[in-house]
Automatic annotation (TrEMBL):
Residues 26-52 have a biased composition (Basic and acidic residues). Residues 100-363 form the Dynamin-type G domain. InterPro entries: Dynamin (IPR022812), Dynamin_GTPase (IPR001401), Dynamin_N (IPR045063), Dynamin_stalk (IPR000375), G_DYNAMIN_dom (IPR030381), GED (IPR003130), GED_dom (IPR020850), P-loop_NTPase (IPR027417). It comes from Paspalum notatum var. saurae. One of its GO terms (cellular component) is microtubule. This is Dynamin-related protein 4C.
Amino acid sequence: MASPQAAALSGYIARLRPLKLQTQTETERMNHTPEDNMSKSKRRRTEDKVKNDDEDAKDAAAAISSGVTASAIAASYNDQIRPLLDAVDRLRHLKVTQEGIQLPTIVVVGDQSSGKSSVLESLAGISLPRGQGICTRVPLVMRLQDDPSADSPKLQLEYSNGRVVATSEAMVADAINAATAEIAGGGKGISDAPITLVVRKRGVPDLTLVDLPGITRVPVQGQPEDIYDQIAKIIREYIAPKESIILNVLSATVDFPTCESIRMSQQVDRTGERTLAVVTKVDKAPEGLLEKVTMDDVHIGLGYVCVRNRVGEETYDQARVEEARLFKNHPLLSKIDRSMVGIPVLAQRLMQIQASIIAKCLPDIVKQINERLVRSSSELDQMPPDLNNTGDAVRAFFHIVKKVCSSLEKILVRGEFDGYPDDCYFHGTARVVEMLNRCAKKLPRECPRRADELFLTEEMNVLEETTGINLPNFLPRSAFHVMLKKKLEMVGQVPQDLVNEVWDYVEDLVMKILLQHSENFPQVQSSCRRAIQSLMEKTRARSAQHVKELIEMELVADYTANPDYMNTWTAIMEGQKKFMESVEDMFKPTKITLQGFGEVDVSHLRTHADLAAQAFDLRAQLTAYWKSIVLRLVDGLALHVLRGVKRLVENDLEEELADELLCNNMAGVERMLSPQPSTGTKRDRLKKSIVLLQQSKEVVANIMDRISAADEL
Ligand code: GDP
Ligand code: MG
């Protein structure tokens, strides 16, 4: 909404402020305290109107009996509201509620036979289907429009997607019954598809109300078993939105707290702030009525209006005269305040409430229409293009592949994750590095050995078994190899686990990204899945081979150019002399602390002093060399994994997907051409919704223009 329009609307609404939703007492108070912040001329206008309202309310009954009902009600109406109400009615007619936009609505609820239809009839001055059984079986939207030029009432019914049927006062009951039968069947079933009845008549209040099926606890003959649930569902749908005003019709003949309609409206409007009560049949049960409406046991925030509807074959005018007479002369009913009795007062109150609720809701409706229009349009833009031939399909397919690969390259190679700022799972490089770090931690920093092993016994055993015919100060190479092989076997699974973990993760990531980018073509997703699975099998096999080779290479030769090896070995060997003294000299302590090995006990070595020096050297070599091995393994694995990932996203994935989908004469991409019912439906739905929202936008734009024009006067 453009800001000048917004300003115009808020100005307009500010002027309607005296009509703000008020409780009955507030209304009375307000009538004597006009808003201070109004300009003088506006205040005068409002004061005049308020005075009119006030006088109208007081004189309503008298006016009716003097036969000027129509003009009395009409004169009380604030003309400024009419265009707003028309706009809301047009939005309702466009079915903007289907887009989830709630309209300010007065909803009539009541237990069965409480007099709902009779109240509407009284407000409209026409006859509606009435009776003991269930009569209102579908929601009936009643649009009453004051038409001073109408000599006779003009009635029309609108239902079932645009059917418009002109009717007459005499025929309206039959016409509604026929339309109901068409919508909800000839039996006693109900439906939530509404009928709209437009009544243009001189002197009717400008009001739009929705009459709902009455609530029945017990199904009558011919009604479905779950009738209560069905009706309750429709009612709840209408009264739950906070934009709805609940007009609760209560019969004076019943105890209000036992009314089902009270229970239901309290569920959605606990404090009663948007509930107004109409008490019918006051002629039948005048006793105790004054107490009932003043005690307000059932929390009706917007107050009570007591009415007497048409009885029997009375005409509308006769009924109003009878009503006025009743409230004036009846010994009990005449005690009820005049601001709480009679159809004219009810009409007055409803118009007032309607004006304030529309003024309150309209800015938000304008906003919602615009938001939804933007959303639906961009959703439609994102829909896949229509594919007409194999060329189109191939192009669409490679477009998907390109998007998948570039997306994977970003998250797995370049470490950019702007597409998923909050979803760590998709921060690919960080997750792979995490796995590498975990793997490096699992590879022991010191050469692994059994915790309970006595110092150097493993080395001694190996030396004994590899002993040959040679000089005693020669360390046999085979002894070192046997030891190395044993140690490498202890950690061999760790690199294997790492590559498995990495490829499991990458496979899952590739699948997820692919599903995201191909959601418009579900018909190719299973082939793509197959292609990825087969590609990942190959990748895993390659990695398994690589890991095997890494370990094998370690066994081929003991070699390192890392100067750290010699430094460490020399440092450890400096302790050899101290160690040998401890082994050979019975008087030295058996517990000593050695560089590289910590505190050790040598007592068990004293009987094997001949091999101890060699065993010590063997251990020194292994300890120094182990560090190089671990470094080499971790670095090798990291580079292998990174290269694998790069190769996958830069080459293999595209190739594999293309092979799978283009093989067999492009059978895979051909499938993309087969129409997708879900896409078609979605496209249609979006197009319809955009048309509807555009029309709605026009409706509100028109009203905005009128408001700005009115503002400039
Ligand atoms: P609905 O089922 O809530 O729509 O109720 P109806 O409007 O069909 O009314 C049920 C019955 O109550 C009808 O026979 C009406 O004539 C009668 N009725 C409604 N209002 C009044 C009233 O104010 N006084 C009297 N005496 N009867 C009424
Ligand atoms: Mg009814």
